[in-house]
Design goal:
- The structure is a single chain.
- The chain has a two-stranded antiparallel ribbon.
- Among the domains are: 237 residues, Alpha Horseshoe (Serine Threonine Protein Phosphatase 5, Tetratricopeptide repeat); 229 residues, Serine Threonine Protein Phosphatase 5, Tetratricopeptide repeat.
- The protein contains 38 helices and two strands.
- By secondary structure, it is mainly α.
């Protein structure tokens, strides 16, 4: 390129080259002036060096962008004059004319004269340059020349008379220029020292070639271009560029590449000796030519096989670079750098979240957000993303909506403890994120839903009411959902409390909120479902049926609506409509063929009208659970959200404390000892679906009792006890078996053991009262039944049995009152027949 007379410039050669490579243009200009003064025969070389120094010094201060065009036109005239002097015949003989034309093209580009810039590149015959090893400074000049040529071709207008062929040829030339510029840029940065920067022009060129391919509809070419640049050996100067390129490649793969359109990248083979054997010293990189950057290569190099692997790989690499380059200092002097690094990291983390959640890799998102915590102090966006991710992780898969408020006993199993911990973490993160996002309604609704699944009622109401107040001020589109979550919270509160006044107040508030939610959004099946549930809780059966029909009209396959329809059509107040209830259960089974709850519902309803068919359905349910256990951990994750209390709608964990004096520690120890006696000597770890299988065995036991097959029922209870020996439902059902055999003393002991574990289990209290009655212990029977009535005053069967006990005690007035209460409550006693074991 630039030739110099060894005799004339030997004393300056080393200093000038060093100054040019270090971009010390002030010193380079000074040395060039000295060279011109001492060696007039090298005047053309001096003119070139002076023009180059003045041009590069200006561009270091004012990059070649449109905002600086006017200033460049004023201040680059001197540099332009020196470079023009270097293009004469003397310059050609000195070997600097070619470099001068290339720099004049750069100068005219900075001044906005794009046509003049292209003319200089044409004079330099840029398209015909031979690929050979170049000095570092010449390498950068050529790289910038190709980049500027491509940018000028983009900026210059095309005459309307230009043929289609010329247009395609021009576009191909433009892309070729950008591709050459990107290759030369990467090679230059690989060879340069650590303190060298690419600059705005070269960084733009690196990104333009794939974008032009995308604009022309050639996605495969764009992806190949990104791969070419990302597989180049990394240097200190390319780290920021690689992060941008990795993000852009991930975006292209996620948006436009699916299925057969995708082609996996090819592996770069390591260098081979002429004899065909691998070199003893295996090279870590390889270059395909003098103008090609070095690429990574290794024998065990990982190559993605599909778009999912490549997207996640690119994003994970990009996230690692973003976290590594994050600015942790909170000092004001680093504010700009911190904001820039945070933007880069957030963009990568967001893309990783989109890709990972799309393919079910939520733990990957959580790990990424955990790593982002170290540099995202006070960043509401990152905390909000983390809050949503932790809420999704705490959400049990396929948890049925009508069971959401019965998750209070999740701590009874090991998985329940894990889910509880995830819920605590989700709520804590949501509180922190809510403080950073004071007007975010959706975040608070998600937090409220998380609290509802974890049975933290007060916290859920707090989040939902915060969201409601914000949305009322904004009159936003989530107002109906805010009312819905407020209604659900108060609905749960009403079911939890035993105080009649508090229960009535919570029921009234829940009803008003749910009615408002339905009024604001009459196309929300969840609002109609919870409204129907609230009507059912309050004994308003006609309104409950209307709301259920509206729910199913909006969404015919709504599981909660179908189950409510089964319960309402099969209750006594609705008349003899068992056929409709069975049809609804069969419809639910059709919509959810792989779920277990439709089989629970169908078997429970068949136990009333079709006993033999119910037994077959129960066996099918047990078979489904057994097959689900063989599916492994994933199936377990889908089903373990249902806990003991999910299958027992009469559970009340928080009420246990008010009856502590009745259920002493010695009773719990006695019950657990009785349960432990059923364990085998070789005690093994419980299987993932043990509790669900145990409930299926208990359902079969109940069906056998209805058919009068007591011995078969006892066998089913034994199977359930082997799976969950400490369950109060096992002890309760064992008491039912003893009651069916008139073994009242054994039945009494079983009910007492069940209540020692679960003091507020109303069915155990009810059956215990019946056992006391059969044993002739009438006052104890009265006490047990009154306690059951205090816990659930809406149970007609409790008052009916209490009336019999009071009549036996010769208290006719009290017996008449209890009987009247039973008659009054009978139409409202619409307990779901599937509630006990499903």
């Amino acid at each position: 390129m630039t030739s110099r007379s060894k005799n004339a410039v030997r004393s300056y050669e080393t200093e000038i080259e060093k100054s040019r490579e270090e971009s010390n243009w002030k010193k380079a200009v000074e040395l060039a002036l000295q060279l011109k003064a001492r060696s007039p025969q090298h005047e053309s070389l001096a003119h070139f060096l002076i023009g180059e120094g003045k041009l590069e010094a200006f561009l270091d201060e004012c990059p070649p962008i449109k905002d600086n065009i006017e200033r460049a036109q004023r201040e680059l005239s001197e540099a332009k004059g020196f470079l023009n002097l270097a293009t004469d015949e003397a310059g050609k003989r000195a070997g600097v004319a070619l470099d001068a034309h290339l720099l004049l093209g750069k100068l005219h580009f900075a001044c906005g004269s794009y046509d003049d810039s292209l003319k200089h590149y044409k004079h330099a015959e840029l398209n015909t340059l031979t690929e050979k090893e170049l000095p570092l400074r010449s390498l950068r000049i050529v790289a910038e020349s190709y980049a500027i040529k491509g940018l000028c071709l983009e900026q210059t207008a095309v005459p309307s008379s230009t043929s289609r062929f010329k247009m395609v040829e021009r576009e191909a030339e433009m892309i070729h220029s950008f591709e050459l510029a990107s290759d030369l840029t990467l090679l230059y940065l690989q060879r340069a020292t650590s303190n060298v920067r690419a600059g705005a022009t070269l960084e733009t060129a690196l990104q333009r070639a794939p974008l032009l391919h995308i604009r022309a509809g050639r996605l495969a070419s764009a992806i190949d271009r990104y791969r070419e640049m990302l597989t180049a050996v990394e240097s200190t100067s390319t780290q920021a560029l690689r992060l941008t390129l990795a993000r852009q490649l991930a975006e292209v793969l996620m948006r436009g590449v699916t299925g057969q359109v995708y082609k996996a990248p090819t592996k770069v083979s390591p260098p081979v000796q002429s004899g065909g054997t691998l070199s003893r010293r295996r090279e870590e990189n390889v270059s395909e030519g003098p103008w090609k950057p070095r690429k990574y290569t290794a024998l065990n190099q990982f190559v993605p096989r599909n778009e999912y692997e490549e997207v996640l790989l690119v994003l994970l690499v990009g996230e690692a670079m973003a976290v590594r380059d994050a600015v942790l200092s909170q000092s004001a002097e680093f504010e700009t750098a911190r904001a820039h690094s945070l933007r880069n990291a957030v963009s990568i983390v967001d893309l990783l979240a989109l890709a990972a959640v799309r393919w079910g890799q939520l733990p990957l998102v959580l790990e990424s957000l955990e790593r982002a915590m170290k540099f995202s102090f006070g960043c509401g966006h990152v905390w909000r993303a983390r809050a949503l991710a932790t809420a999704a992780a705490a959400r049990p898969t396929h948890a049925h909506p009508q069971h959401a408020h019965h998750a209070a006993h999740a701590h009874r199993t090991a998985r329940g403890s894990s889910a509880c911990g995830a819920g605590v973490r989700a709520v804590c993160v949501a509180r922190r994120a809510a403080a950073l996002e004071p007007r975010d309604v959706a975040l608070r609704l998600v937090a409220a839903a998380t609290c509802q699944r974890s049975a933290w009622i007060e916290e859920s109401i707090e989040f939902a009411e915060e969201a409601l107040e914000i949305e009322k001020e904004n009159e936003g589109f989530l107002l109906a959902r805010c009312y819905l979550h407020c209604g659900i919270g108060y609905q749960m509160k009403a079911q939890k409390t035993n105080c009649r006044k508090e229960k009535e107040s919570a029921n009234a508030t829940a009803l008003s909120h749910l009615l408002e939610a339905v009024r604001l959004d009459d196309n929300d099946h969840l609002a109609f479902y919870h409204l129907a549930l609230q009507h059912m809780y309050m004994g308003m059966l006609n309104e409950a049926m209307d709301a259920t029909r509206a729910c199913l009209r909006v969404r015919a396959e709504c599981g909660g609506g179908l189950r409510l329809a089964c319960a309402l059509w099969s209750c006594a107040a609705a008349g003899a409509r068992g056929a409709r209830g069975l049809d609804a259960a069969r419809l639910a089974r059709h919509h959810y063929p792989g779920a277990e709850w439709p089989l629970w519902t169908l078997a429970a309803l068949q136990s009333v009208w079709e006993s033999e068919a119910a037994l077959a359905t129960g066996k099918e349910l047990l078979k489904l659970l057994n097959s689900g256990e063989e599916d492994g951990e994933q199936q377990y994750c889908e089903l373990d959200a249902l806990s003991d209390s999910v299958h027992d709608t009469h559970s009340n964990r928080d009420a246990a404390s008010i009856r502590a004096e009745w259920a002493g520690a010695y009773k719990a120890e006695r019950a657990l000892s009785a349960g432990a006696s059923s364990l085998s000597l070789s005690m093994q770890r419980a299987t993932p679906l043990a509790e669900h299988r145990a409930h299926a065995w208990l359902l079969l036991a109940d069906l056998c009792l209805r058919l009068g097959r007591t011995s078969a029922a006892a066998g089913c209870v034994s199977e359930a006890a082997a799976l969950t020996p400490f369950s109060h439902l096992v002890l309760y059902t064992r008491g039912l078996v003893h009651s069916a055999s008139s073994e009242w003393e054994e039945a009494r002991q079983c009910y007492r053991n069940a209540l020692a574990i679960h003091p507020t289990h109303v069915d155990s209290l009810l059956q215990l009262g019946g056992a006391y009655y059969e044993l002739g212990w009438l006052r104890l029977a009265e006490r047990a039944l009154r306690e059951a009535g205090a816990l659930e005053p809406g149970r007609a069967d409790v008052w009916r049995r209490l009336a019999l006990v009071l009549a036996a005690l010769d208290e006719p007035a009290a017996a008449a009152d209890a009987a009247a209460a039973a008659l009054q409550l009978h139409p409202r006693d619409i307990r779901d027949p599937t509630a006990l074991y499903s």
